[in-house]
Amino acid sequence: MIVKVFNDKGSLAQAAAEEARTILRETIRDRGCARIIAATGNSQLEFLDALTKAKDIDWQKVEMFHLDEYVGLDPAHPASFRKYLREHLIDKTGISNYHFLDGDRQQVEHVLRDTAKALLAAPIDVAFVGIGENGHLAFNDPPADFETEEPFLIVKLDEACRRQQVGEGWFADISQVPQQAISMSVRQILKAKQIICIVPDARKANAVKLCVEGEISPTAPASILRTHPATTIYLDRESSAMLNPKTLSTFAAAG
């Protein structure tokens, strides 16, 4: 794992987007297409803005999956991840080959089966992910399931995760935040050839410390990224503030 620290979230986003651009261009050049997993949330906004402005990416040759979606939330709701991805990635690039997780309660099992089939058809070239305030990876809240081979799960969201959604402004209060979501499993995320993890802001500093310096454990779900052979975590000065400088030099050297 490589840990890179930048002065602010803007420079973090630009650097992460440049790595993503390089991966996509080289993969399309070598294989004729690229398959990606896209994350959502406030932490990804600057990154996606920079990535969609990148030159020389043939987005018609990119196939996109997304990490997670609330169960029972109208796709037109401001917090819908389908809406987010349309506005911040699909509409800006013209991607036409994408797979949404429909959180309609009546369709969930059907969605899990069909999306998993499409996902498993070929390897994922790069996954864009973040780390939640409670250390979650996708919507795999602690204690996360590190063992299941199922590509997607229906998970119960913990209170810390639901409060984060309120704090980010997606919901007016916690009573409006759904209690269940569809999430890509931890082991499925780890099957991506490369992982780019974008984690800005001071509110993520404690989770970053737990996941980078603490024990690799289901209680800090994103700590599992340390077992992946090609993960880069992008931090800004605020999100990295609690890390030991020796940790940063160790992980940078390990890359």
Structure report:
With 255 residues, the chain is of the alpha/beta class. It contains 8 helices and 10 strands. α1 (9-31) packs across α2 (45-52). The longest helix has 23 residues, at 9-31. The chain is globular.
What attributes does this structure have?
255 residues, alpha/beta, Rossmann fold, three-stranded antiparallel beta sheet, 35% helix, globular
Q: How many domains make up the 3D coordinates?
A: 1
Query: Beta-sheet strand percentage?
Result: 15-25%
The dominant shape is: globular
Write the CATH architecture name. Answer: 3-Layer(aba) Sandwich
Output the helix-strand order.
EHEHEEHEHEEHEHEHEH
Between the first and last Cα atoms, what is the distance in angstroms?
Answer: 6 Å
Please bin the fraction of helical residues: 25-40%
Rg over C-alpha atoms, rounded to the nearest angstrom = 17 Å
Uncertain spans, ≥5 residues at pLDDT below 50?
A: none
User: What structural category characterises the helix and strand content?
Assistant: alpha/beta
Q: What value does the average pLDDT take?
A: 93
Main sheet specs: 7 strands, parallel
User: Number of DSSP helices?
Assistant: 8
Question: Class, according to the CATH hierarchy?
Answer: Alpha Beta
Lateral strand order in the biggest sheet:
1-10-9-6-2-3-5
